Amino acid sequence: MSQSQVQAQKAAVSLQKRIAELVEDNRRLAYEREYFDRLTENAMGILPQVVYHVEALSDSTRKYIARVDRAKVRKESINEVRFGSTPSAPPLDTALRRRGLPELEHSLNKNDKEQA
After folding, report:
1. Of 41, 82, 89, 99, which residue is 20 to 30 A from 71 by alpha carbon distance?
2. Count of CB atoms within 10 A of residue 108's CB?
3. Which domain of life is it from (predicted)?
4. Is the pTM value of this prediction over 0.70?
5. CA–CA separation, 92 vs 96, rounded Å?
6. Buried/exposed code over 49-81 (b: 16+ C-beta within 10 A; e: otherwise)
C-alpha cells in the first residue's frame, strides 16, 4: 500500500469514529428531548393544582396578616391572635385560681397579704 492509501484509510477510520460519536450524541439528545418533553407535559398537568394551592395559601396569608394588623391596632400580642385568647386576659393569679390549683392559690394569697 502506498502512503496516500494508508493516510486515506486512517482518515476513513477517523471519519467513521466521528460519525459513530455523532450518531450516539444524536441518540442521547433524542432521548433527553423525549424525557424533557414528558417532564414538561407532567409539569403543565400539575401547574393548575400548584396555582390553586398557591392562591389558597396566599389568601390564608392575607387573612392572617389582617388578623395580626388588627391585633396591633388593638395592642394585642401576636400570641393572643394566634391562639385565639381574649384581648383582655385575666392576670396570672386569677387564671391560676380558676384552674383550681390550691397550693399556688395559697402562696398567691400569702404574697398578696405580705404586699398589703
Report:
1. 99
2. 16
3. Eukaryota
4. no
5. 6
6. eeeeeeeeeeeeeeeeeeeeeebeeeebeeeeb
* Closest by CA position to 71, among listed 60, 87, 58, 50: 87
pLDDT at 15 over 90: yes
Whole-number Å distance between alpha carbons of 79 and 7 = 85
Q: Please give the full DSSP string across the chain, using - where no structure is assigned.
A: --HHHHHHHHHHHHHHHHHHHHHHHHHHHHHHHHHHHHHHHHHHHHHHHHHHHHHHHHHHHHHHHHHHHHHHHTT--HHHHHHT--SSPPPHHHHHHHTT-HHHHHHHHHHHHHH-
Looking at mean pLDDT, say which of 62-66, 89-93, 97-101, 111-115 comes out highest: 62-66
